[in-house]
Amino acid sequence: MTAPVGTLAELRAALEARRVSSRELVDAALARAQALEPKLHAFLGMRAERARAEAEASDARRAKGEVRGPLDGIPVAIKDNLVQRGEPTTCASRILEGFVSPYDATIVTRLQAAGAVIVGRTNLDEFAMGSSTENSAFGPSRNPWDTTRTPGGSSGGSAAAVAAGIVPLALGSDTGGSIRQPAACTGIVGMKPTYGRVSRYGLVAFASSLDQIGPFTRTAADAATALEVLCGHDPFDSTSLPEPVPQFSQALTGDVSGLVIGLPKEYFVAEGVDPAVLASVHAAVAELEKAGAKTREVSLPHTKYGIACYYLIAPAEASSNLARYDGVRYGHRAKDAANLSDLYCRSRSEGFGPEVKRRILLGTYVLSAGYYDAYYRKAQQVRTLLRRDFEEALAGCDVIATPTTPEIAFRLGEKSGDPLRMYLSDVYTVSANLAGVPGVSIPCGFHDGMPIGLQLMGRTLDEATLLRVADTYQRRTDWHARRPPEPA
Amino acid sequence: MSRITREEVERVAALARLHLGPDEADRMTTQLDAILDYVALLSEIDTTGIAPTSHAVPMATPLREDRPGTPLDPEDAVRNAPAREGTAFLVPKVIEGEES
To answer: What ipTM was estimated for this complex?
Structure first.
């Protein structure tokens, strides 16, 4: 088997020094993906032929001195809810069987314009609904650190692909923690930018007021490089923010002196969180203090309502977004339907898995006459209170530090029979989506051989400060340099 | 006391164009009941006078110039159709009771 790949920065340097070609990098990524697939099931499909041709085109550009930027020639993977023209998109659902996208997502256009080479589509919970990839219609992905455990979800395939050293960069989507939680579970960096920073044109919609695309990398510096390519206004996404995109890499000064890190007291209560996780997060904060940061206790008083708020708003939006899967225009169509209504009902019932059905039912219920005010409107009001919590806390500090998850990656099957228990895995991550603020998870320790994640959240549009703090931490520690064992 | 009955689950399923088998309906009722019981936590917060948030980052409705662009090619738009005729999607007959 080919060796695990280095970081994006290392591969870029190797390409620049002509120590390796893009074609060699892409061949190695494809070979390693194939060799690890029986153990990890990180991928739902590869794009070998086109990837090799694009890699050769990248090498030809480099030979002529026409390099498009830091991602040119770099192999990347994308979550299989991001569409690529001429390629399948499954969302890990039977209902999209046979679907081949007629257009490119904006982030695909941006990656290709930057010369990046998409090698494959990664596994996820069906329609990104889940925290373990166990809701994938095509079977779960596995954690490279311990294949009896989940890599987290919903972007678990992308996380596993980066953690196992198949690609240095993969994209995911984060609606309630689906980038940050798997990053924490697999010991890598996962970032959800500010809502609206990255265009969602071509991201299959789950909960439109919460969904955001972001990168998985080994380092915060690599995340900064990727975000410079991914972020930016897009007229095809009406929620895309028309704000200038900073040169995130230039924010990585290694200097956090004078920055104030807020520690929200509600995230550090002992109840329901592994003491080993809390100890690692406290140690990480102490390391940042040694680097010159100051800390203070802050309060996000509505934290305990986050999950309830999220599991009303997200299913409500999902029930509306998923109405489009009706067997008429694409995807699965039930055979021998008696009439149009029967066609809708049977196509949907055959095509959707149990978690998707559960959320559609929950969402339809809370939006239905007589329940709208009690559930949906109430959740939207609580969302206002959660947003205010962040505004007030971030008036007194520059970033907020918390655990990303209450525990290390759980075992496959451990929570799959109990939806509510699975939902509580997202307790520390949903608030950033509800408030729209950016968040990143970086590795900060191990327990029982499994990685632990530190979450940093910041002010709207202030990804630069988050990345500066994360990068400073990584300059002083080597958790991110640890590798999972190579499978026998 | 349960928060949602099996009859309500079946009514909602019909609204959402989903068919649940007997076991599935029982299981969903139990699970949705547990979830609704949990989210009832929100009722302890007084939200009188609090405006609802539907969008996390406030922004004005974006406008653009009304200029023609290049839409999706009709052939591309229908290529995924499970059944089609030309560039039209074919579905079972919608109006019943009349033979054409």
So the answer is: 0.94
